[in-house]
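Practice problem. Given the sequence and the SMILES for S-adenosylmethionine, write out the predicted structure.
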Amino acid sequence: MLAAATVYMPRHQRFTRTMGDPVQFFDDLAPSYGERYAGKPGFHDYYFGERLAKATEGLQLDGRHVLDIGSGTGDLYAALQPRFPGMYYLASDVSPRMLEHSKVPPGQRMVGHIYDQDIGDRRFDAIFMLGVTTYMEPTELERNLEWVARHLGPSGLFIVTFTNRHAVDSWVRRLCKPMLNAGSAGKGNVLTSGLRIHQYAHGDIRDLLEARFRITRWDALNHTIFPFNRLFPFLSIRVSRSLASVPGAPWWLRPFSSDLMVRAMAR
Ligand SMILES: C[S@@+](CC[C@H](N)C(=O)[O-])C[C@H]1O[C@@H](n2cnc3c(N)ncnc32)[C@H](O)[C@@H]1O
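Answer key:
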């Protein structure tokens, strides 16, 4: 474990905050972000619950070293800790306020880019990056992937999600963006935030990862489609759940899956 400190921030690290800056956006969202996991039943509750369930399915992490990059408010930790009380967990995030609201114990949180942390040659049994690649510039993603490949243990697993560029949900959201911008979509809405969003097709993800990793599993996530998932959440979720047991990410399911998740091992 790192030495106990409320938050570990390398001194040389500085963030420039501008409109559309992920740090600013997630700092603002931090006080309410955890409600997405523990809120009333509806779209968010379904979306985040499914992602957590599939990301952790079948894992045995007791006594194992786990790293969560872009950990947000620590909801992955809250899900894993009761199952694996003996795991060693570290969480990192570029948003200081997300970490201030985190469920991860203070001495296990690091603020900043993972590749700037003083971690030495430590290896992890599992490295998670859930819901984060969407907000990373391509060069930033490359640096993270390179770092992860060097810090996975011999049988360590990298579990990472991507927003699916070829999802009908993504196309509809792109079409609706001008209308949402004109309306009052509200604080915390990624579409109207000015954030640059990065989406990846199945083939893009394979090409990105296969240089450094061996992909061992694909999952297709969230088969609801905007705006029906907001207008008719319970019907959308019921249809989506009936597709959730399909294994892998077959070609016919990908257009109906807003996110793709990969498990991979270092080569
Ligand atoms: C949508 S939230 C996901 C949080 C958490 N992983 C989850 O599944 O609930 C995205 C998180 O990624 C963080 N983030 C964005 N860019 C990052 C980067 N380059 N490195 C680390 N974290 C980043 C944000 O601050 C935010 O907390």
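Check your answer against the key. The first strand starts at residue 65 and ends at 69.
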